[in-house]
Design goal:
Layout lengths: L4 E4 L5 H10 L1 E4 L8 H8 L4 E4 L7 H6 L5 E4 L9 H6 L3 E3 L6 H16 L2 H9 L20 E5 L3 H14 L2 E5 L6 H7 L1 E3 L2 H7 L2 E4 L13 H6 L5 E4 L8 H9 L5 E4 L10 H4 L4 E3 L8 H19 L11 H5 L1
Parallel strand pairs: 1-2, 1-3, 3-4, 4-5, 6-7, 6-9, 7-8, 9-10, 10-11, 11-12
The chain binds glyoxylic acid (GLV).
Length: 328
């Protein structure tokens, strides 16, 4: 029987490629070539399925150039690389990779918060540069985590994981804002109190962003919002580039409008706004919040599971536009 053919757009675990090869004709980009959009389309043409990594844009242009395409399985929980409306209109199923990365990403959010509030990278650079020659009472004094007020904007599974770490592990007071309020049971589990966005900005000692990116959430944090925050506050973005206005943030950090920021995601990444590189009070990491090997393997396997289920005539595990399945 003819095997469906699929494209794996970026290098991934060889064992996942081997799993896929049992059921599919696989073109795998295991040399991890950086393709332009035109090259991506050339590789995708004639393929019925795609394994994407959260970077490859699937929009009307790609869909009309690749009419054989039936499913794109993202190895990421975020899916702002997918134009879901265009995919649904073209009858192409979209799937993402939620849940398996929740705890790992919440761990990282907390790590970035602690590194930022306690000035870990800034002080390490100082030491490495040979500048440490005496003790002083205020050297790299930062902000406390324990007992502080933790604000969370975006209270999905990862936000809830961060809330629990803060409340249960560090005795923090947790407040959150979200499109919809959690039910009372979940609020109690997270020991989190729902507040309006303005109160969140004004009250949080540490504000962690974990909301999905969409045109509606573009620049959710800009100059106006930064001006509402405490001058002693820390801002952490592990959500997506574009949720924060990075240029406005660099100005706020330079002028000490807020104390510090920790950023794992950037507008236009992998490019980083050069102004952010010139301020010392920011910790910068290259979009690695879910990066542990077991979690990345689980994410890759979940993307593979979705492709295997779909072409095996079964219900995909984590569909985003199930309406497409109903049509078929
Ligand atoms: C990572 O950013 C993801 O969306 O999985």
């Amino acid at each position: 029987m003819r095997k469906p053919n699929i494209l794996v757009a970026r290098a991934v675990f060889p064992e996942v490629i081997a799993r896929l090869e049992q059921q599919f004709e696989v073109e795998a980009n295991q040399t991890d070539e950086m393709w332009s959009k035109v090259q991506f389309i050339e590789h995708l043409q004639g393929k019925e399925g795609a394994f994407t990594t959260g970077v490859e844009r699937i929009d009307a242009e790609v869909l009309s150039a690749c009419p054989q395409l039936k499913i794109c399985a993202n190895m990421a929980v975020g899916y702002n690389n997918f134009d879901i409306d265009a995919m649904t209109a073209a009858g192409v199923l979209a799937t993402n990779a939620p849940d398996v990365l929740t705890e790992t990403t919440a761990d990282f959010g907390f790590a970035l918060l602690m590194a930022t509030a306690r000035r870990l990278t800034e002080s390490e650079h100082y030491l490495r540069a040979g500048k440490w020659n005496r003790w002083s009472y205020d050297m790299f004094a930062g902000a406390d985590i324990h007992g502080a007020t933790l604000g969370i904007l975006g209270m999905g599974r990862i936000g809830q994981g961060i809330a629990k770490r803060g409340a249960l592990g560090f005795g923090m007071k947790v407040i959150y804002h979200n499109r919809s309020r959690l039910d009372a049971g979940l609020e109690a589990e997270c020991k989190a109190r729902y507040v309006g966005k303005e109160e969140l900005l004004k009250t949080a000692d540490h504000l962690v962003l974990v909301l999905p990116y969409s045109p509606e959430t573009h620049h959710t944090i800009g100059a106006t919002e930064l001006a509402l925050m405490k001058p002693t506050a820390t801002l952490i973005n592990i959500a997506r580039g574009g949720i924060v206005d990075d240029a406005a943030l660099a100005v706020a950090l330079r002028d000490k409008r807020i104390a510090a920021a920790g950023l794992d995601v950037f507008e236009g990444e992998p490019a980083v706004n050069p102004a952010l590189l010139t301020v010392p009070n920011v910790v910068l990491t290259p979009h690695i919040a879910s990066a542990t090997m077991p979690t990345r393997l689980a994410m890759a396997n979940l993307a593979a599971d979705n492709l295997l289920a779909f072409f095996g005539g079964k219900e995909p595990v984590t569909p985003l536009n199930s309406a497409v399945l109903a049509i078929k």
